[in-house]
Amino acid sequence: MSEHPTDAMRQTVDAVYGAESRRVLATLIRLLGDFDLAEEALHDAFMAAMERWPREGVPHNPRAWLVSAGRFKAIDGIRRRARFDVKLEAIARHLEESAQKDTEGDDHSVEDDRLRLIFICCHPALPTEARLALTLREVCGITTEEIARALLTKPATVAQRIVRAKGKIRAARIPYQLPSREELVDRLDAVLHVVYLVFNEGYSASSGESLTRVDLSTEAIRLGRLLAELQPEPEAIGLLALMLLHEARRDTRTSPEGDLVLLEEQDRSRWNRAMISEGCALVERALTSRRFGPYTIQAAIAAVHDEAATAPETDWAQIVGLYDVLLRADPSPVVELNRAAAVAMRDGPQYGLTLIDALLARGELADYQHAHAARADLCRRLKRTADARASYERALSLAKQEPERRYLSRRLHQLGAEDATR
Amino acid sequence: MKYLCLIYDEEKTLEAMPKDASDAFMGEYYAFTEGIRASGQYVAGEALQPVSTATTVRIRNGKLVTSDGPFAETKEQLGGFYLIEAKDLNEALQVAAKIPSVKLGSIEVRPVVDFSQQ
């Protein structure tokens, strides 16, 4: 026991908040039928806990206590407002009657509430940016200010997206429900897409700023774990694997100076082995289901990289094969580009270059920085210095992130040095 | 709750359809309408004459301006609608996804304001 019981109690309440606030919120939204009402009730419930737990002790089931406290605080609040608006009285009565009927708190329904919350925040009827903001706010419990900082935008913008999304949920009556069997594939896709976007936002964030930013990659992995646990569909498992297998290399992707370090130059001894073995096991599990999709295939590609002890030992034949599978499942020019880069590693730069030139000639990737950078690298290896320079310059003109710009400038500089030594 | 499903089709595509295909398409519409009548979701529905028959009116500076054509020139044109009853957006979207034009054009689903709830 601490010498300051109030401090100790505050810590206890904070710990309960950290562990349970999202579950309590998810259940309150179902019980009260409204996001804002539920958030207010959540706040009131924790205020009540701070006040009463020091006197009465921490309840046996804090979560059920908080749900119940929040629910009745909300009903009280509606009652008070009903004095000015008769229509609210009916709502208060309805909520009270349903509160008397059900007994709260079996774990199954609590977990279903968490899934309901994820599915509604990622509803395909909401704009993508709003889904991202709403999921981070409601499911992860990140503040609007932190979300804005993480997404490099203004808090007012994030707040507006959330308000509009909640407005649409209310006006269009988007239900707080688990998807039906026939809706599930579509709806789960939408959820996985949001988790993937959150992960990428975090993963591509430049390291210099990461200290001040909420770690979105960690949040995405947490969400991915929750989904893989609550809705263990192959692609949910595949996405979790994909994120873990990339996250495992994260610390080695940038030098201490914040410069980009390519996969082949990374210090593999510093890769996170625990994440890699967990990721590989998940890939195996998703693959055996035979109902896997693009996330699982991408995870399998990442697994092949992660399992190679050194860069030259990478099994490029297997990677090209996996890209072929990916192209059938989810055709896109970017996947073709990645496949071309893998072909260059398997068969030699000339073969990859032929594919990339054909791809660039089609035009879709004309403004895609990585296509020009990949072409430049292959030209450099083939000693076609002038072509390499032109492509690096084109890539540099398209690059927006500082570490990528520095990497491309460095390459250009090295080309100059090679020229000088001839 | 009521939702309006606005049906947008490319008139050119429909006009270019051979007779048997267009008959089959109408047959699908007939079956769809029967289906939502039977399920109690149907409130109203109509098909519209092509946009070449549309007339748009506005009053500007107190003067009535009448012009030929639709409100906006778009690739797909409003060709009809269903007003349906559904318990929530998910149910409305499931109904909309069965409107035959969903395969050729687009269906916009809009919740209807219930003034008694305001």
The fraction of residues in strands of chain A falls at under 5%
Following the backbone from N to C, one meets helices and strands of chain B in this order, namely EHHEEEEHE
Shape of chain A: elongated
**Helical stretch tally of chain A:** 20
Ranges of chain B where pLDDT stays below 50 over 5 or more residues in a row are none
Q: Give the chain pair forming the largest contact, with residue counts.
A: A-B, 10 and 8 residues
Give the SSE string of chain A: HHHHHHHHHHHHHHHHHHHH
Report on this structure:
Chain A has 422 residues and is mainly alpha-helical. Helices cover 74% and strands 0% of the residues of chain A. Chain A contains 20 helices and no strands. Chain A has helices at residues 5-32, 35-56, 62-82, 86-101, 107-121, 128-139, 144-150, 155-171, 181-203, 207-210, 216-230, 234-247, 273-288, 294-307, 316-329, 333-347, 349-361, 369-381, 385-398, 402-421. In chain A, α1 crosses α3, α11 runs antiparallel to α12 (234-247) and α15 packs antiparallel against α16 (333-347). Chain A is elongated, with a radius of gyration of 26 Å. The termini of chain A are far apart. Chain B has 118 residues and is an alpha+beta fold. Chain B has three helices and six strands, in the order βααββββαβ. In chain B, β3 and β4 form a beta hairpin. Chain B starts with a strand and ends in a 7-residue tail after the last strand. The model of chain B has no long low-confidence stretch (mean pLDDT 94).
